[in-house]
Amino acid sequence: MNQTHHKSYAKVVENGVQAVGAVNELRNTGYRYEDVFVLAHDQDRTERIADTVDAKEIGIKEEGVFDSLANLFRSRGDELRAKITSLGFTDTEADFYEKELDQGINLSTSA
Fold first, then answer.
1. Which region among 3-12, 70-79, 88-97 has the lowest average model confidence (pLDDT)?
2. General stress protein 17M-like domain: which residues (predicted)?
3. What pairs with residue 37 in β-bridges?
C-alpha cells in the first residue's frame, strides 16, 4: 500500500492479543509489513507489541528528522499526536486516538 494513494486506517484495541489479531487481519487483506504500525501510550509496550506481531514502530522515515528530534522535547501526548499525524491522520483524529491511548489502549495503524 502506498501512503500517497490510500487513506490511513486505524483500529483501537484493548490489549496485545487483540493487537496481534488486528495486525494479522491487516496482513491477510494485503497490507505489507512496512505499512503496518503499532502504537501504545507506553514506549516499552509499543516495542513489545511491535516485536510480538512483527510490525513497525513509527520512526524517522514516517515522521521526518525534524519531528523525530522535536519528540525528544515533547510530552508523550504531543509525541503520540505527532506520530499519528505523520501517518496521514488529521489533527482531530490524532487527538481522538491519543486520548484513547491515554486510557491504556493500543492502536494498530497502517498507511
1. 3-12
2. 10-104
3. 56, 109
CA gap 32, 69 in Å, rounded: 27
- Whether residue 28 is predicted with pLDDT greater than 80 in this model: the reply is yes
User: Which residues are registered as beta bridge partners of 39?
Assistant: 107
Domain boundaries, the chain: 9-110
Q: Give the Cα separation of 9 and 55 in Å (integer).
A: 15
Output DSSP code: residue 56.
B
* 9-13/36-39 β-pairing: unpaired
**34 or 94: whose pLDDT is higher?**
94
Q: Note if the pTM is more than 0.85.
A: no
Strand partners, 110: 9, 36
Q: Is the pLDDT of residue 96 over 90?
A: yes
Q: Are 83 and 39 in contact (CB under 8 A)?
A: yes
Under 8 Å between Cβ of 57 and 50: yes
